[in-house]
Amino acid sequence: MDVRFPIDLRSDTVTRPTPGMRKTMAEAEVGDDVFGDDPTVNRLQERIAHMTGKEAALFVPSGSMGNQASIRAHTEPGDEIIGHEHSHFYFYEGGAPCALSGCSLRLLRGEGGMFTADDVRGALRPGNSHFPQSRLVVIENTHNKGGGTIWSLDAIRRIHEVAREAKLRMHLDGARLWNAGVATGIKIEDWARPFDTVSMCFSKGLGAPVGSIVAGSAEIIRRVHRFRKMFGGGMRQAGILAAAALYALDHHVERLADDHHNARRLAQIISALPGIQVDPRRVQTNIVFFDVDAAMSTAATLCEALKARGVWVLPVGPQTVRAVTHLDVSAEQIDAAGQVMSEVLHGRLAVA
Ligand SMILES: *Cc1c(COP(=O)(O)O)cnc(C)c1O
Question: What is the rounded CA–CA span in Å between residue 218 and residue 32?
């Protein structure tokens, strides 16, 4: 069978809209969303509000804007945010919590991007004027840098107990909450319940070209809306984009199970290769991290050699590589990528 190259495993953001999605986008009814007039955006927002069990939702251009407009809505300058040191909102969003919201960060450590209720309790500041005001807990599910890991709902609920006692708000960075939902069978509404705001992306595994959404109470979404405008995220005939998101909800959620299967299969194939460390049992969703033996190569060199053979993966540390499965990668392509990796690592091709 002919397998299509390149096989792009750098990220699940590289998906391109399918013909069916493009057709729906072309036919979308639109209006000026800054006036609240876009019927397709409104339909998407209502659908997500319902799905998350919240009063309202707001379409935003990116996951970063969803996180940062939510953070701004929950906080005042001088407040402090508690979250994991490897969180996207802190590590990959350009220092935005400090720059846009004037907040300090209390960063926690833990395996796979997780932390505990006790960690949160230990990070709370005393309530007097010497200290920043502890205000918000941010949880990321699935956790990107943690390796696509899924939180336990019980661990989240225990953190919620501490947050409630201490009058902290909770924000969920659910860029890949869809993956957590499909992998566990736990409904989006149940994942969302302990949180004041939830952001989710359509532009990752769901395959839409652009777009994320924030859900929460009507009151907090009014504030997120104000900061979306302030941050330059008000969009006009955005129904073209919302149509892609609606199409993705109808067609691309259940199939995330295929991505999870492909990720585990890739991990299994490469776990047998020389100089590679990966534990397939730790692959819970669509992200595979693996380490390259320093005696053999570096992550950057290996990625270059693979790229020359049409397999694109991402170096994320000196010896660490990330591969992500998605809508545009078939099971056959996973096998072919494994074959290329095997040839490169068995030295039939020089690792430059
Ligand atoms: C991708 C991602 C985001 C948002 O990214 P954008 O590129 O701004 O859409 C937020 N959180 C996590 C965990 C992500 O992986």
Answer: 21
Q: Is 338 in the pocket of ligand 1 (CB under 6 A)?
A: no
Beta carbons within 10 angstroms of residue 352's beta carbon: 9
The greatest distance separating any two alpha carbons of the chain, rounded to the nearest whole angstrom, comes to 68
User: Which CATH architecture is the domain 19-251 placed in?
Assistant: 3-Layer(aba) Sandwich (3.40)
To test the pocket of ligand 1, the residue of 59, 68, 85, 88 to mutate (highest count of ligand atoms within 8 Å of its CB) is 88
Question: Does residue 350 register a pLDDT over 90?
Answer: no
Query: Cα(70)–Cα(74) distance, rounded to whole angstroms?
Result: 6
Closest ligand 1 atom, CA of 212? 9
Return the residue whose CA atom lies nearest to atom 8 of ligand 1.
64
Ligand 1 pocket member 140 (CB < 6 A): yes
pLDDT of res. 2: 82
Mean pLDDT of 294-310: 95
**Distance between Cα 204 and ligand 1 center (Å):** 8
Q: Helices 331-345 and 256-271, interaxial angle, to 10°?
A: 20
Task: Provide the whole-model pTM.
Answer: 0.97
State the helix-helix crossing angle for 239-251 and 39-52, rounded to 10 degrees.
40
Domain residue ranges of the chain, discontinuous segments joined by +: 19-251, 255-346
From CA 234, how far away is CA 232, in angstroms rounded?
Answer: 6
**pLDDT tens, residue by residue, 169-211:** 999 999 999 999 999 999 999 999 999 999 999 999 999 999 9
Q: Which fold has domain 255-346?
A: Aspartate Aminotransferase, domain 1 (3.90.1150)
Task: Indicate the pLDDT class of residue 304, thresholds 50, 70 and 90.
Answer: very high
The C-alpha atoms of residue 195 and residue 191 are separated, in whole angstroms, by: 8
Q: What is the sign, positive or negative, of the torsion defined by CA atoms of 327, 331, 337, 342?
A: positive
Specify the length of the chain in residues: 352
Residue-level pLDDT at 348: 63
Q: Give 153: exposed, middle or buried? Use CB within 10 Å, 0-12, 13-18, 19+.
A: middle
- Report the separation in Å between the CA atom of 89 and the middle of ligand 1, taken as the mean of its atom positions: 8
